[in-house]
């Protein structure tokens, strides 16, 4: 009953005119950037962080959540029309969606994508509203050693699963952890890694790092790959609406996709890619029309798109209740919370219930807005694809620079932005994942603080980390997550040698 009361209070916050405007801006921007290949919701939130520095925290976070939901939907438009997923989570959608578009059924493909996103997003948001308080009740029992172990799980799972190589992921993580050491040590008051630069005594700004790695790095990377073949736009032919048969073949995949997306999205490093491909393979096995798969089966669009959007709500569960980001966009949203001096976790539900429940309630509104916006505006999203890339990325560079100057006018800050941009370019060039760097910078100082607290309470005894059942279990999970990719790789090589 408490959840219903909290949700009703959150809805009263979410329907305030300014918050409705923020939600509308968020879903519109999210869909627009999701449509543009290579510019995902993480990059958009990173760009907007410095711009929203002095805005209302609740409204800004509602806008960021709208961008996340909109971006997850928008990636399907390019996946269906030109076989270019705007987001990695839309890759499964492209398999059948583009075949449908080429067969003149782009309208029903876009329609099942939009309605599936709405259904899955609504069910998953209800799951978030009822699961979050239960998880908060569990999390308030955590001691400092348990929180440190939880951070270790986040570090290992994020770094080992982002990208193709666990070694590269761990390298990215350690870059972030090193950047997290910059500034004044809160325990001793000594400067660390500041190299005599006064501006570094406050530490590295998360917004500067995020904008540099995501926006500037992406612009440099796209510029380096300038002379690639351009995709041909596929016009939407025929009716945009679904037939009775299409509805019949879509509703079960929508529900099954939701069941895949929400729980996997809520796991540390679950992400959206795994449930979308699981949904696709399940629909391929269960379909009554196996001959259509590979030629444009509507189930192959409905299921993955539902899983995609349900996972977006799933990632908000660990973010809001434990302060753990399980995707690049969630890491950017965590940076947004910290920008306003807010720390997501069990205490946030007690200290700022209006903000947390207003954010959760706004997701229902954002879902309705997405449905109303996206079907009529398909033509507009297609035209966005015609923006020349040099104009687009030049605009992103200008916006990134202006935003950084507005948040913290300093030559050192601009130099760091340029430096992080080059680092982001090199990491993309050599296939190093970027999200672990941001996660390391944000969670590194928190993990260090919790470890020091645990050791201070136990008078320096490191065995305190294993004496708590929760801590011991989480450290065991972290160890398994660290070793599993290497063991699986070794077994694969052994089997290949045997063959």
Report on this model:
The protein is mainly alpha-helical and 499 residues long. Helix content is 74%, strand content 1%. It has a two-stranded antiparallel sheet with strand order 1-2. Helix 4 (57-82) packs across helix 5. The relative contact order is 0.19. Keywords: Membrane, Transmembrane, Transmembrane helix. Residues 20-438 form the DUF112 domain.
Outline of the structure:
Keywords: Membrane, Transmembrane, Transmembrane helix. The protein is mainly alpha-helical and 499 residues long.
Primary descriptors:
499 residues, mainly alpha, two-stranded antiparallel sheet, 21 helices, globular, transmembrane, transmembrane helix
* DSSP summary: helix tally: 21
Lateral strand order in the biggest sheet: 1-2
What is the total tally of β strands? Answer: 2
Shape: globular
Q: Report the sheet with the most strands, covering strand number, pairing sense and barrel closure.
A: 2 strands, antiparallel
- Residues in helices, as a percent range: over 70%
For the terminal residues, how far apart are their CA atoms? Answer: 60 Å
What's the alpha carbon Rg, rounded to whole Å? 22 Å
Q: Beta-strand level of the residues, as a percent range?
A: under 5%
- Give me the strand/helix succession: HHHHHHHHEEHHHHHHHHHHHHH
Structural class given helices, strands, pairing? mainly alpha
What is the typical, i.e. mean, pLDDT? 81
Query: Uncertain spans, ≥5 residues at pLDDT below 50?
Result: none
